[in-house]
Amino acid sequence: MKFLRFQDKNGRVGSGILDGESVVEIEGSFFNDYRETPRKHPLGEVRILPPCLPSKIVAVGLNYRDHAEELKKEIPEEPLLFLKPSTAVIGYGDSIIYPSHMSSRVDYEGELAVVIKKEARFVKESEALNYVLGYTCINDVTARDLQVKDVQYTRAKGFDTFAPIGPVIETEISPEDLEISTFLNGERKQHSRTSSLIFSVPKLISFISHVMTLLPGDIIATGTPSGIGPMKVGDTVEVRIEGIGVLKNQVAHREAR
Q: What are the pLDDT digits (tens) for 133-142?
């Protein structure tokens, strides 16, 4: 099942289920109880919003061996965690704003995102997938020059618009072996499978839940494969994950103030 959030032509925000080229509107929350309504919206007549509103995005660094190698980093013994703020979240078709006032290199990082279904604290690895609603795409946009300069990742990863997610939350796939690719202006730059993750999805959920409480709607960004590279204003970037779909965004100038 593919859950999504949308805004109709009258500006009303709703939640629904993608059914071919239509969105079946639901009442209630897809995190607990909901019911389908008779209301259907043609997909072309709605704006797709971020499929959830996380309180936090817990991201994992160096979780593909080839990515660690391209950065000349050692393979981590434990998951390397950092946070992206909720204010970084945008949806399908929204613009990634290039922070040229601070950065001169902004990179794409296509990743599988895990969407948490219910409160998770001290979760056993064997039970971890019971806490998952589903999976979506995320682009862990990174100001690479600031990441090197600052050492820690907060500024480089935390600019507004630096966490595109979507377009849907797919609930009926396994995260074990999904094809993942990132395209820049139609050219494939990243390509791997989630079977190449150093730390699996259940391991990540369990590990993170022993550090912090995960809440419904929170996202775990599982790491990016090799092939990272810069984007410039006017570029189009797409993250494509098997079974989920395509997350597409353009890079734009910061508005003058």
A: 999 999 999 9
Return the half-sphere exposure (C-beta side, CA atoms, 13 A cut-off) of residue 186: 0
Report the chain's terminal Cα–Cα distance, integer Å.
42
Q: Kindly list the distances between the CA atom of residue 80 and the CA atoms of 59, 199, 210, 241, in Å, as whole numbers in the listed order.
A: 8, 10, 14, 23
- Cα 209 from Cα 237, distance rounded (Å): 31
| Amino acid found at 51 | P
Which domains, from first to last, does the chain contain?
2-49 (2.30.30.370), 57-253 (3.90.850.10)
pTM over 0.90, yes/no: yes
Cβ atoms within 10 A of the Cβ of 235, count? 17
Predicted local distance difference test score (pLDDT) of residue 72: 82
Phi and psi angles of residue 159, each rounded to the nearest 5 degrees, phi first: -60, 150
Nearest to 138 by CA among 66, 203, 60: 60
| 8 A C-beta contact, residue 246 and residue 85 | no
Phi, psi of 71 (to 5 degrees): -90, 0
Q: What angle do CA 115, 126, 215 make, to 5 degrees?
A: 30
What is the average per-residue pLDDT within 197-202? 97
* 227-257 confidence digits (pLDDT tens): 999 999 999 999 999 999 999 999 999 764 4
- CA distances (Å), 197 to each of 46, 66, 69, 113, 221, in order? 35, 10, 14, 13, 12
Hey, what amino acid is at 20? G
